[in-house]
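Bug report (template v2)

What were you trying to do?
Predict the complex of my protein with nicotinamide-adenine-dinucleotide.

What happened?
Run completed; filing so the output is reviewed.

Input:
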Amino acid sequence: ADRRIAFLGLGNMGRPMAVNLVRAGASVTGFDPVPAAVARAESASVGTAASAADAARGADIVITMLPSGRHVLDCYRDILPAVGPGTLFIDCSTIDVAAARAAAALVIEADCRAIDAPVSGGVVGAEAATLTFMVGGDPASVASAEPLLRALGARAIHCGASGAGQAAKICNNMILGISMIAVSEAFALGQRLGLTDQALFDVASTASGQCWALTTNCPVPGPVPTSPANRAYRGGFASGLMLKDLRLARSAADAEGVRTVLGRTAAEIYADFVRVDGPGRDFSAVITAIRDGAVG
Ligand code: NAD
């Protein structure tokens, strides 16, 4: 708690995370190029600086929560001259594995330490400090980040060397995107065959079709009252972010020469869906387009 933390990227995820660090008693200086994001963070009592480099100067730990790998690499190049040796960089953004490794290499070259620590749990998890971190980096750097990750989340799983956190995140979300489409196709077919949603749910949720997309985030209203389908697919995990993660999985698979046929198809279905429905609704809303034959 006595370590000085720079928090770069005060968007939907970064702001509540920075607020939780302040509440935990940490000394936090934030930065975001969007003035409205800065204003919202300040009104939640997060101190801010005029630039990323100003926020990072003298920090012991630099946390980034940015849109893409390009943003992280640009940001690291910008701030590395302002930090001292040994500074710990924790990137919580979801970015491609290659950029994560390149970012860590830049940091290590500057005699600093780097881990990638992308999250699952969404804005709700960021606010409630119940995020799951998937962590890549050397064991000593990961160990020194652990108290801070514990203040922001419920779990941190060390997955391997630099980039391993990002790899675990995109592989998990590839399972999730594919399984949501599978569950949605099953409900669409079941409805045509005269099955009630409840009957299909009662069978599949206690049989071999059981999965998170069915039993927690059920894409039809009724069987799981807390799923986004019961509130017009508002809140939850936005389709645009699912598409982003499926594209990251796709480009990693292409780079490695792995034929992820279902992962690629899932990316195409979500691209179609986001074109017709926009990026904002929970990703389980894809069932509405599957039912209408509007995707795939
Ligand atoms: P967001 O767009 O709300 O926030 C990103 C912020 O970064 C923006 O405010 C932007 O202005 C700022 N930024 C850009 N360049 C910067 C720089 N050089 N220095 C400081 N700030 C800079 O996005 P978000 O929803 O908060 O997501 C952030 C990351 O977390 C993404 O990689 C996303 O994929 C990942 N993620 C999001 C969710 C979610 O549910 N929103 C869940 C898991 C992971």
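What did the reviewer find?
Strands lie at 4-8, 27-31, 47-48, 61-64, 88-91, 113-116, 119-120, 131-136, 153-160. Residues 4-160 form a domain with the Rossmann fold fold (CATH 3.40.50.720).
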